[in-house]
Design brief:
Strand order of the largest sheet of chain A: 4-3-5
Oligomer: homodimer
Strand content of chain A: 15-25%
Number of helices of chain A: 5
Structural class of chain A: alpha+beta
DNA sequence: CTGCCTGCAAACGATTTGCACCAGC
DNA sequence: GCTGGTGCAAATCGTTTGCAGGCAG
C-alpha cells in the first residue's frame, strides 16, 4: 500500500476508535498495521505471527479479539474461504477473489465491469442486499504446474483442510 | 426437488460410484438422500441429525467422510460461509447466494442475467477460472424485523460464530 | 481513577486421524 | 476373500470464554 493511502487508513483507524470511545492500544495499532501491508489474505494465526515481529509478547487471542473489533468497526474485512480458518483483508472497498481449488490461495481481483452486474430480483421485504462479491474458482499457476508435472507423489502437498471441492 | 430430478440425481450418484469403483453403502446413500431434499445449506452436523432419522446408528464422522467423498465426486457442493462450519449444497449447477450478515442464513438465488457476467482479465498462465458464484450480503427478513423492533435484549440471538462483519 | 483491554488457561465446536471390525463388490 | 468403508476414541485446529491484572483516556 502506498504511503498516502496507508496514512489515510491509519487516520481512519484512529478516528473510528475516537468515535467509538475505544482506547488505541499498542496491540490494536500493531495488528492493524500488520494487516495493512499484506497482499495475501492472512488467517488470524498468520496475523499473529506477523504482529509478533513488532510485539513479541502479544497473545493469539488478543489478535483474534482485535481482528473481531476491527471487522465490526469496518476497518478490515473478514472474507469467507472454503478452508476452515477465517481470512482477513485490509481492502474494504468492493472487490473480488480468485480462489484456487487446490491450494486455497486467494488472489485479489478488481474490474470495473464487475461493479455493474445486475442485482437479482429479490423482494426487498425478504432480503435487502447491501453489497456483493464474486468468487472465481479455478486453479492458480503453481497448482496448474503441479498437476501437469507431478514430480513426487501426486498428493504431494495436501491442500489446507476443507479447501477442496468448493 | 421434483421426483424426476431426484431420480436423475440418484442415478448420477450410482453412476459416479460405479465409475470410481466405490461401494454404494447404506450410509452413503442415506447421506446423499438427506442432502437432496434440503432447501437450506446444512452443516455436517445438521446432515448428521437428518440422516439419523433413517440410520439412527450412523456416526458423525462417517457423515463427515461421506460428505467429503460426495464433494470430491462432484455430487454435492461445499459452499463457503462466513461462519465456522462448512455448508453443503445439493445444487451443483451455477447459482448464487444471499447471505444474511446477522444470522448467517443462506438463500439460494438464480438469475440468468448473473450467468453472463464478464470474466476478469487474468493472464491464463496465472490463473484459470473454472466457474464462479456471487455472494450477495445483506439482511434477511427476520433480521430486518429484529433490528427494527428489538423486543428483548438488542443482542437477543447471537449470530453463529464468525458470521458477523463479513 | 475507571473501564475496557490484555494475557493466560481452559473450554468449545468442527473436523481429522489411527485402528479394529464389518460390509460391498 | 480383498478392499475399502464404518465406528469408536482421541488428537488437532481455530476460536471463544472466564477471570486476574494492566493500560489508555
Amino acid at each position: 500500500m502506498n504511503p498516502a493511502d496507508r496514512q489515510q487508513r491509519l487516520d481512519r483507524f484512529l478516528a473510528a476508535h475516537r468515535e467509538s470511545g475505544l482506547p488505541v492500544t499498542h496491540q490494536r495499532r500493531a495488528v492493524f498495521e500488520a494487516i495493512l501491508d499484506r497482499q495475501d489474505h492472512p488467517t488470524a494465526e498468520q496475523v499473529h505471527r506477523a504482529v509478533r515481529q513488532s510485539l513479541p509478547q502479544i497473545s493469539r487471542m488478543t489478535v483474534h479479539r482485535v481482528l473481531g473489533t476491527l471487522v465490526s468497526l469496518g476497518l478490515v474485512a473478514k472474507t469467507c474461504h472454503p478452508g476452515s480458518a477465517a481470512r482477513f483483508d485490509p481492502r474494504i472497498h468492493r472487490h473480488h477473489h480468485l480462489v484456487c481449488l487446490d491450494c486455497g490461495a486467494i488472489i485479489y481481483v478488481e474490474d470495473p465491469r464487475l461493479n455493474r452486474i445486475p442485482r437479482p430480483r429479490v423482494n426487498p421485504s425478504e432480503f435487502t442486499i447491501q453489497d456483493y462479491n464474486i468468487h472465481f474458482r479455478g486453479r492458480c499457476a503453481r497448482c496448474q504446474q503441479k498437476a501437469r508435472s507431478p514430480r513426487r507423489k501426486p498428493t504431494a502437498k495436501r491442500a489446507p483442510a476443507g479447501t477442496r471441492g468448493l
